[in-house]
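Researcher: I'd like a candidate sequence for this fold, 130 residues long. If you have to choose between options at a position, lean toward the conservative one.
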């Protein structure tokens, strides 16, 4: 497995743990302080930038390769990654007010992406002759 692929797997696994651990829950005593999904996440190149992201979203984002080409110029391109066969995205689900569905779909997508990366790593290892 390449170092880059292994790093991506670890990053996505850490993001999944963050979500499953309630990292995107509402802050105590601040019910209106909801954070957009992935906005200050571990996978975001700008996760320490407050309050706005800069242009690095558009050239250094580790998720940019799965963002549809026509959505890469969006302010938060990662919010336009298709999460399922229906084409739901973080943006579409958040716009519809389906916060719980966002987290469930992102967790499912992360698991699928991690599995896919691990499977492709296994395939590469299986092709090596000893």
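Model: Candidate sequence:
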């Amino acid at each position: 497995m390449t170092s880059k692929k292994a790093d991506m797997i670890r990053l996505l696994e850490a993001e999944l743990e963050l979500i499953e651990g309630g990292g995107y829950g509402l802050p105590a005593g601040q019910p209106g302080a909801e954070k957009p999904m992935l906005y200050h996440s571990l996978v975001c190149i700008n996760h320490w930038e407050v309050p706005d992201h800069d242009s690095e979203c558009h050239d250094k984002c580790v998720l940019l390769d799965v963002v549809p080409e026509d959505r890469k110029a969006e302010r938060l391109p990662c919010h336009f990654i298709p999460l399922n066969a229906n084409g739901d995205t973080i943006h579409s689900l958040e716009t519809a007010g389906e916060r719980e569905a966002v987290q469930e779909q992102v967790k499912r997508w992360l698991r699928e992406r991690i599995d896919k990366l691990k499977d492709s790593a296994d395939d590469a290892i299986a092709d090596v002759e000893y």
